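Job type: complex structure
Entries:
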Amino acid sequence: MEETLSSGGPETVSSRVEGGVAIIYAGGYLNKINGERTKRECRDRLQNGCRALVINFSDTEIVNSIGVSILLGVIDAAEEREARLCFCNVNNHTAQLFLMLGLARHVYLAPTEEAALVWLNAANAAAPPVISTTPTQRH
Amino acid sequence: MHYGIEKFLHAFTSLADLGQEIADTRDRKEMVESALQVVLGTLAIRRGAVVEYVEEKGSVQFIAARGIGSDLPPEIPFTDTDVKDSCEIGAGGLSVSEPHSSNAAVRLAKRHPLLFENLGYDLFMPLIMRDKLLGILLLGPKMSEEPFSALDRDVICSMGRHIGVGIYNHRLIAEVEVRAEENQRLYDDLRATYQDTVRAFAAAIDFKDKYTRGHSERVGRYCEIIAREMGWNDEQVEGMIVAGYLHDIGKIVVDRDIINSPYKIDAKLLPELNRHTIAGYEILSLIKHPFADIPLMARHHHERVDGGGYPDGLTGDQIPMGAKILTVADSFDAMTTDRPYKRRRTMEEIIKDLGENAGKQFEPEVVVAFARALLKEITGEAQGKEILNTLSDDYVDIENIKPLLIELIRSIESNSYSAAANVT
């Protein structure tokens, strides 16, 4: 672990950087408030030069429509800066939602944070990024 | 879980989210931005915008937009024909990727390539409320790259109606606020006019009596101070100021020679002078005042709580409290200004008079309030020095009356006042 900037419980958004990859923990309920916090963390990391992001949903029970919309904004921002983006520890319900809405076509859903980091390292070695539409989910 | 049911549930909860955003968000722009986010998140659409139709300008303006860059035109001209065509398309919307199904759609697409194609929108959905175009919801393709299904269209249509209602309600609120501001301005103007008129009347009243110039204005000021000290609210205090200004208005019907008499008016002429209270009441009763009891205060400002006053010989609680305040304010000014037949009194004599006449001529509660206000000015407890600044230079050194005021208040409150014993 290279750097820990902030951390918190399930209700808060926090982030850290490991091996040049920013890992953002999305909090318990990804709504407007937590969504904006997540977006801000992602944006700040991108502005600071990070080119690989993992959003960890391990504490996230629900993602509402505004949360989805904000995640679309994060995907746009990552694409604009040619950064790689990966979601991990997504629960079954949210994974179904991301699949249904087409987010999983644009973002790799890794089963764990470690798997996400492995995928990002592998993807860094070989462009373009691998896209998975059949993710392994957290239950 | 069946895929269709999952989709339906997501749409259903999104509708609930939208309703909450529209109901909870007070700022119009913020409301529309949140609503757009809900719509985009419901179907995972990356590009979208809400434009508002501004009838007075004949244009549409972007209120919220996502995924189309920041260099949006501030407004796009939108003619009556565009409005008509939009309404013809209706709240069901139009999918740009589908062949244009109506002449209205073809015409609009041709006239507004920016709204239809240049920004890459797939769905053009007019927001219509009570047959009026409020705006347009523009949506890009879904992230899933699937075409909009009938269910998608129904959901967006329903959300569009919500957003339309939200914009409509915010417009109504804005209109009400503008009207309220206009009404407040008009009211303030009327109030200022009323106050100017009252001041003009007061000047006219005092002009007639060369010995009491400025009397009405000073009485108004004392009334204000006493009423505030008694805890009256701002409107009541303002009413007392007006009563102070106008209490002697009846003097305009009294013979000028009597008013300006250099001698104390004798018993024969006294009724003529005293009729100014009833004349004042009658004059003021013709006017609809924004404050209560102004005519009655003018009528009864020479009543005494012991019943020895005029014109009606009222006692105690029969006399309106405003009139009792006027009596103290009027008497204090009379005692602190020179008259042709009587020189002003010292402050010690005045305090003695107030004490001796508390419960006879004056309402004790009012005397205490006045004494407290004066004491606060002397001790610096009051913010201003309204009474002291109103008095003439003869009353500069009145620090020594502090103990007299304290004793006056204490004695009245303990109902055992004897001012004479305290004045040396």
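Summary: Residues 3-125 of chain A form a domain with the Transcription Regulator spoIIAA fold (CATH 3.30.750.24). The longest helix of chain A spans residues 32-47.
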